[in-house]
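Note to self: keep these together.
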Amino acid sequence: MKQKIAHITLVVDNYDDAIRFYTEKLHFTLVEDTPLGEGKRWVLIAPPGSEGSCLLLAQAVGEEQQSRIGNQTGGRVFLFLYTDDFERDFRNLLDKGVKIVRQPLEQPYGIVAVFEDLYGNMWDLIQPAGR
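Structure:
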């Protein structure tokens, strides 16, 4: 048996605002943006050079989904973005005005910093040790 996680849903307030943030500030690629009718869209984004999972941007519908925006993991780091050049990508976050929650630290597994996306979801930016 062979399986993989294809997409991870990220609940957002607005498709276009989310696309702009991820493509302009994090340099993600817009993989797909297909209208599904009634205002719904199938929106996939991925980090540059990624061959793995994509983020599926899902615009919140209703109070319950709205309440999850920015806090899908109860205040914990939600997503982990690996990089081959920490300094380049950390500098980009600073230059684009992305909120840094924790400054870079050397850890046994690599160098890591925590940042927030436009909704307050926390991300780790990580360059694994030895790379």
